[in-house]
Amino acid sequence: MPLTQPRRLSTVLAAGLGAVLSAGLLAQPAQAAGTPAQGTYQLNYSSVYAGQTVTLRQLSLTDNEDDRLLLRKVTWGDGSTGLIYDGEVTAQHEYADAGSYPVSVELMDLDGTTAGTITGTSTVTVAKVTGSYRLSAGTTWRGPSATLPVSLSLAGVPADATQVRIGWDDGQESTVARTTRSVSHRFAYSGAHRVTVSLVNGAGVSAPLSVGTVNVKLDYTSPTVKITTPAKSNRAASWKTIRGTAADKGAGASQVAIVVGQVRGGKTYYFNGKKWVRGSINKSKVRYATVKNGKWSVKIATPKKGYLIIGYAAVDKVGNSSVGKSKQVKLTR
Fold first, then answer.
1. CATH of the domain spanning 6-127, picked from 2.60.40.10, 3.30.470.20, 3.50.30.30, 3.40.50.720
2. Regarding beta strands 241-247 and 163-167, do their DSSP bridges make them parallel or antiparallel, or are they unpaired?
3. Taking every annotated instance into account, which residue ranges of this chain make up the domain PKD (predicted)?
């Protein structure tokens, strides 16, 4: 079988030979013994967040006569080990859990085994992702023209983080400065979405912290809208303000649109937004009212005796609209 990874294989063989040497199974003439190899190393970070990676770099290597170094083994302190391979001077490791981890290096060659020297700190402190993150809602709605947004508030972001990365679990991410206080998002599709937060700094991106789940529901139900008939409905003054109610089983009713016209003695009039004008009712200006607590109202110029005709419809917060309706009232006073 051809050797496709000669460098890795040589390292494995060297490790095996080193074990034999350390067990005393291969005797070396006393006169051939020399000084074991000495190495100096340095960690690029001594404090990271869970999920981030540290790099151990070899600064120097001495007493490795005739290139007899067989093994450079790194113990990361969390139960993991690694090797610095032939021709390389670094090894990397990602810490999964918070804690304090001592790092050490073992060098082995034909002259024996020694511990490498780590300049600076030799312990990596791994912190949990901290901060306060709160979703504005656990449920939102998606309809034919919109998805209601959900916001995430941020507070207490650690000072050593430069950015916060928010995973929305719908194929989208938001990366914001650590000083950002709120981020709004519209989910791309329905379903349950697990929202996560990761901290970003020079050491990379931390492991994600789950901050909650948002359930995005589909809403294709039309709202309902009604006009409230005043007690003295035959009086023109009673219709200076047109009132009504609107309801919706999903995202909630948002707006009501109305048009008004009159028939007076066989002649038609329309309301242009300010006053009544003789002409086709189709020219009436559309008036909009915001639905608040299930109620809405629109003011118009006081109509006169005759017939008042009101056309009305409603739309909900995600784009579903009701069927247009009309109401006709006879005004006698």
1. 2.60.40.10
2. unpaired
3. 75-129, 168-211
